[in-house]
Design goal:
- With about 140 residues, the protein is of the alpha/beta class.
- The chain has two domains: about 55 residues, Roll (2,3-Dihydroxybiphenyl 1,2-Dioxygenase, domain 1); about 80 residues, 2,3-Dihydroxybiphenyl 1,2-Dioxygenase, domain 1.
- It contains two helices and eleven strands, in the order βαβββββββαβββ.
- Strands 7, 8, 9, 10 and 11 form a five-stranded mixed sheet that branches. Strands 1-4-3-2 form a four-stranded mixed sheet, covered by helices on one side. A two-stranded antiparallel ribbon has the order 5-6.
- β9 and β10 form a beta hairpin.
- The radius of gyration is 16 Å and the shape is globular.
- It holds the Pfam family Glyoxalase.
- It comes from Marinicella pacifica.
- InterPro entries: Glyas_Bleomycin-R_OHBP_Dase, Glyas_Fos-R_dOase_dom, VOC_core.
- This is Glyoxalase.
Length: about 140
């Protein structure tokens, strides 16, 4: 398997300035190229692009459905990054300090199993669901008990 390379993900937003402020100020992303209709962001080394979607409107949000996982309503779709445990803890604290409302509060799942991981879920201002996780042992990312 070759070394990991950054992913590119483009998502809708209802307001580019609002998305910029959230991803820059709350998540700590650095800014890249931009126009009136989109912004490039460095999301933990990955390229995230927020594109203006006029169908969302000023009060609109991305529509989500949910799947029952671990007795939690996990939003679909969602995206995020696997972080180191230290970076995940710092992010969880940063989100809490900014008053971000969690869809699923930070917790550790699969305790004592091969896939033991810390996870948390929240939405950006446009309703895009994000999950950030960290594994006790990153080498077990795809492990099966």
């Amino acid at each position: 398997m070759s070394a990991l390379t950054p992913f590119h993900l483009a998502i809708p937003c209802r307001d580019v300035a609002e998305a910029t402020a959230f991803y820059r100020d709350v998540l700590g992303c650095s800014l890249g190229r931009a126009s009136e209709d989109w912004i490039d962001l460095n999301l933990f080394g990955h390229q995230l692009v927020c594109h203006l979607d006029p169908n969302l409107g000023p009060d609109g949000q991305v529509k989500l459905v949910h799947s029952d996982v671990d007795k939690h309503a996990v939003p679909i779709p969602h995206f995020g990054v696997v972080l180191s445990m230290d970076d995940w803890q710092q992010l969880a604290e940063r989100l809490t300090d900014y008053g971000v409302k969690f869809m699923i509060e930070p917790y550790v799942r699969f305790k004592g199993q091969a896939g033991e991981q810390a996870t948390l879920f929240f939405k950006d201002p446009s309703g895009n669901a994000l999950e950030f996780k960290a594994f006790k042992d990153l080498n077990r990312l795809f492990a099966i008990d």
